[in-house]
Amino acid sequence: MKKRIGVLLSGRGSNFEALAESVRNGRIPNAEIAIVVSNREGAPGIDKAKSRTIQTRVIPSKGLERETYDRQVAAALEEANADLVCLAGYMRLLSPFFVAAYPRRILNIHPSLLPAFPGLEAQRQALEHGVKLAGCTVHFVDENLDAGPIVLQAGVAVRDDDTEETLSERILHEEHRIYSEAVRIVLEGRFRIEGRRVLIQPEIK
Fold it and tell me: Residue 64 CB: number of other CB atoms within 10 A?
């Protein structure tokens, strides 16, 4: 039976599209994207999901308390029988209720080498700090901001002439690659967590 992925997004959905392509071409085998949920009306990612005939839900979050909103999202994911929840540009901090509902089954992709530069505009933060190496991180989600155990990371060298846009573009390329890889590892159960360390087991050929 195929594993079912639920994707939460707020914007353009480029990481969602990368996951969808990886499912389609077998890089994430025995899986399907069961539902895409957005907290914002008009999110381009929803239109991209519809074009792939994937079930979508728009559940506006404006004016709702975090847990009240998260219970609505969790109900939609439960209805879709989601095995794994993937955040793809989802601009909300999850409540303890939601994290407890999906223990070790929520992944996020962040455009920095965490724990450096959590939160918004990580690429700009990296440039302003003058780092020589930026990158991206796939991590399990807890109720804190960009703080859960790290599954995979990829480094991206910072060039002297980089702008926020050029650096972001190169990081995004790596995001698409490692997010699909991390989702496959988690769906196949090829990991264990010791303290904060995610230990990955080799793929059985």
Answer: 14
Tell me how far apart the alpha carbons of residues 72 and 62 are, in angstroms, rounded to a whole number: 13
Q: Give 143-169 pLDDT, tens digit per residue.
A: 889 999 999 999 999 999 999 999 999
The pair of structure tokens assigned to 202 is 């080799």
Query: Cα(62)–Cα(113) distance, rounded to whole angstroms?
Result: 30
Confidence (pTM): 0.96
Q: How far apart are CA 50 and CA 162, in angstroms?
A: 35
Superfamily of domain 1-103: Formyl transferase, N-terminal domain (3.40.50.170)
Residues designated catalytic: 110
As a CATH number, domain 108-205 is 3.40.50.170
Distance between CA 153 and CA 174 in Å, rounded? Answer: 9
Closest CA to 188 of 171, 201, 173: 201
